[in-house]
Write the structure tokens for this entry.
Amino acid sequence: MLSFNRRPFPDKKKKTWDEAVRRYNLPTGGIEISISGDYKPKPAKNFFKPAPVNVRQEKKAPVAPVATSPKKPLRYIATRSILLTCGLATLGNLPVYSMISTPENDKILSLTDPRLDKSSPAQIIKDLNLPAVAVESFSGYAVDALPDATQGSWSMRALGDNDTLKSVMSELELTKTSEKLLKDSAIEQELKHLKAGAYILTQVVDGSLQQLIYAKNKTEAYIVSATDEGFTGHWENDVFEVRNSKVAFSVKHSIPRDGKAAGLSKSLIRQISQVFQQDVDFKRGVKVGDKIGVIFEDFVYQGESIYTDKILAAEYASSKNTFQRIRFTLEDGKTGYFRPDGDTELKRTAFDRKPLEGRMSSGFGMRRHPVFGLRKNHAGTDFAAPRGTPIHATADGSVKFIGRQGGYGNVIELRHSEGVSTLYGHMSGFKDGLKSGEKVKRGDVIGYVGSTGTSTGNHVHYEYRINGEPQNPMTVELPKVGIMSEPEMHAFKNFASAMGEQLADLRKLALVDKPATGQTGG
Ligand SMILES: [Zn+2]
């Protein structure tokens, strides 16, 4: 489970109208309104009077908004009411009505549709099956209760194969909430089966779930919002924007302090020290003026960055050295932060010790032969396993021999680099279609355990030879290869050079940020 502390956000409420226009595709024009310049608040009876909206109990909806909240300017109230009007007009095909103030008598006339007058906005919106967010946006005075993406804390979880809403929510200690959610049949329907690889983002405010977003893919998301009655859910498209964000700063006080001031989350600041742990001594080696540039993945929701995931590339430049690290995932699924050269000196073992996971039934060296009863050198290692167990190539190579050969029975010999060959004996069968001369990759299945040739039971006889001389496969020093294969290195270099250019641009920004150096007169 990842979580992070948000950075400061701008005032969300200012954006409510624009946001509503965008989210509910409201018309931005077409409704006429005029409000006289010197308007003084009028008693509520002269005003379009929305019925109380049951959005938040704690926000007792005032019956007469103008009278009870003198601080709120008329324009605010009027705008909200019009928001209601055009929202309904668009979404429900109801007749548009408008409010008109006349400068002559300073009176506001409300020309309302009788149908609208009788039912509350909440009821209308319920009838029209609008999301609760709409109630809050359009209700005029309850707008303060809008779910605010900037409150509380967000966390994100990538879904695995066996994840359920309950399992995800229990990690957040919200098991009871998940039960409540699943009691709602509409929500249960949508969140019953969660797609592996999708994301769940949760916003928790004061220990309670405020919003839950099931991001099924990059465009489709199911959004659950807390209401007074419980929860309500709806699908939305293009909720998120995943973007690469960049931040550069130079050290003035400390990395956490300056990083935070530059807008980095705690999680990203922590990642910086992990990414450069081999390059920089973070306890003693950080100097004022050191420059840090970070490119990271950022999730944007309702125009706000709500989740910062991971560093994609970063640079640490001191007066002596410049270090760069680029995130890259190898074919085996391991992810690391590599230097732009691909860490060519970093090696990994080119061979697996064993061709299968099984009990070693006979070791390498002198032994009494199980069939002939004589003391004889055992040129390999035996691993017992049930007949048919797959046998894997222990390294990249090519097939030198495949077929039947005396005491070995069905046997495969593979040729590898640096004069090394491996041999797999007593197989019950070969992998379909495998031929002499064919290339194999480390881990490929080449055949199946059996007891062909001189053998007393199902096992694989495994030999490791250097220039034809059998060695003990369990103790021989295994050759090493570069950490990246050739195709991996190629892909990495392309990505690294693109990231390197962006890091260089970032460095210029950090230079601008450099603290002014003192001047001594003379
Ligand atoms: Zn053997």
Q: What stands out?
A: The chain has a mean pLDDT of 72. The chain has four domains: 2-145, 153-238, 243-298+305-346, 359-481. Residues 248 and 506 are 6 Å apart (CA to CA). Residues 362, 378, 380, 382, 461 surround zinc ion (CB under 6 Å).
